[in-house]
Amino acid sequence: MDNQNRKISRQLTKSGIPTKTDLKPFLPSSKRKRKGAYALIECFEEIPCDPCFSACPFKSVKEFANLNDIPVIDFKKCTGCGLCVPECPGLAIFLINEDRDDGKATITIPYEFLPLPEKGEQVWALNRVGEIEGEAKVVEVKTYSKKNHTTVVTLLIPREKVLTIRHFRRKDQNER
Ligand code: SF4
Ligand code: SF4
Asked: What is the domain extent for residue 12?
């Protein structure tokens, strides 16, 4: 079954929150995960949109047969450059790097709130419903261009949470 015709869970249909089974077809192999960062596109609605395709300089996002197709990455071509992350208007692309020896991973998240966090800051890592999953350290804050105001923030997180953590909240003054 290809990704366009895959079965989706009741949970994803009802709440928009994917299960691990929903995510599986969009993840690279374990071998590819050991080769460095990869993009994970979590765009499950068939919407007429394709900036992810044009944003990738390596043609890693497969060509759409139809503008409503679900984007799919060719992990043989994805270099993990991260350029697609700030270009998605739906904030649906994440960059994950599990290629570490310390049991941790990094996740790069598109972030459109101000003020921005600072490198080294401890923040609350949140799951898809906004619940706190634990603390995370901000390891990079990057804005690619003046034209694109979406900043990308990279967090250091436990590796077992790479499919869970999708956002963060800065700590209040009294939480620091
Ligand atoms: S991370 Fe880079 S190479 Fe991979 S899909 Fe995104 S833009 Fe393309
Ligand atoms: S740019 Fe984002 S919202 Fe648009 S198709 Fe690609 S992943 Fe989906």
From this structure: 3-175
CB 97 within 8 A of CB 33: no
**How does pLDDT run across 87-109, given as a tens digit for each residue?**
999 999 999 999 999 999 999 99
- C-alpha 43 to ligand 2 mean position (Å): 6
Residue 6's pLDDT is what? Answer: 76
Prediction pTM value: 0.94
Q: Would you say the CB of residue 93 lies under 6 angstroms from ligand 2?
A: yes
In short, whether 85's Cβ falls inside 6 Å of ligand 2 is no
Which of 78, 144, 150 has most ligand 1 atoms within 8 Å of its beta carbon, as the pocket-test mutant?
78
Q: What is the pLDDT of residues 117-160, one digit of tens each?
A: 999 999 999 999 999 999 999 999 999 877 788 999 999 999 99
**Are 130 and 167 within 8 A, CB to CB?**
yes
* Count of the separate structural domains present in the chain: 1
